Amino acid sequence: MISWRKHYKKSLIAIGLLLSTSASIHAQGDPKKGQDLFKANCTACHALDKQMIGPALGGIVDKVKKEQGLGPDWLHKWIKDNKALRASGDKYANQIYEEFNKVEMLQFPNLSEEDIDNILAYTTDPPKEEPKADAAATATDASANVQQSKDSQLNSQAILAAFVVIAGLLLWLLVKIRQLVKLQQTPELTDLNSTRVNSFSELYKKYSFVGKGVIAILAVLALYGVWNSLMWIGVYKGYKPEQPIHFSHKIHAGENKIDCQLCHSGAKYGKVSEIPSVNVCMNCHRSISEYNGKYMEPGKDKAFYDGEIQKIYAAAGWDPAKQQYTGKTSPIEWTRIHNMPDFVYFNHSQHVVAGEKAIISSFNKKNPNNQIDVVCKACHGKVDTMNVVQMANDFTMGWCIECHRTTEVDMTNGYNQEYFKNLHDKLKKQYGEGAKITVDAIGGLECGKCHY
Fold this sequence. Notes:
Elements: H1 2-27, H2 31-41, H3 60-68, H4 72-87, H5 91-99, H6 113-124, H7 135-183, H8 187-194, H9 200-206, H10 208-231, H11 249-255, H12 260-263, H13 266-269, H14 278-285, H15 302-316, E1 318-319, E2 324-325, H16 348-354, H17 356-366, H18 376-380, H19 397-406, H20 414-419, H21 421-431, H22 447-450
Antiparallel strand pairs: 1-2
Helix pairs in contact: 2-6, 4-5, 14-15, 16-17
């Protein structure tokens, strides 16, 4: 009997220790701090509620404990250096590696033990998101909108009544004027009216020289109008067509600070900047399946942006649930905005690399209130502020020539200093020490430079 009581007490103690250990698994760490760490380090490959590149991490502590009998210490080792853990022969570590197509997880030796505890606490008990808007405030806004609608309706009715009154007054005035005209139709006045010009043809015969002059002026103006219209054929400044997938440069380049050349790599190394392929989009959107940004365009919401991301998946043939490609692709038919004529030669790399400093400096001097920091903006405008990209400049021959005449060559470049040394000396002798070398001085206005 005594022996049974001892065992019973020991069992209670063991259960108490187990419960306290289990509780400590959930109690360790700060979920709020863990949320920030999770977003900074984990969201590229993981989510709490669904599989992405890696498994869903919601409740991962309990899952590892129940399925494998492993505690948080194993997760610490896995997060710190999963490669070393696999190399040690750990069965579960190698099982995960095989299960997820041998995609090696990043190592995080920079995370402290406390940081990892915070992340695990977040996966176990994520803090609830605060409501976006207070119900009372929403109700107030709704009542304000109703009142505003009523006021607008009353204003419309008042304006309509005023128009009816004015129309009545005008009709009354017309009747009175007609009566006065009839009273003044005396015989003398009738004889006078018979001598007046009553048609345009009579007026033209009487003043034919004036009519011919007016016609000549109108003909000149018409010819100028036709010539001016012909000169602007192919100039589409402000053109911003709708695209098959809504891509906001303001969100990508503006809010998220993505470098232009990450997507348009050809602008730096080739003649053409290229429209990015869907594979470039998938470099990021393979792990970004929904929009969680704070910025929203007018009239658009999270559901709209999530739907556009799904269009990318459909084009790439990507199954986000299985995290694999299906092989069923659908090319995206983008509408081209900037398109130089076939007889014009333009090399992006020449301007982006060789002319970068010179173009930025020249643009900022001419536009002190509209400074730029990236060479692309000199021609394409501030794309990082555009929800829908539009043609920001004329892109005419005159526009290009004006730029070549005013943009100074970057003489701080060692190559340019050596290559244009003789030309620089010649200009100094001809125009004095302060002479500037602009692009037109080095052949920037030669026809063969831009035309085949």
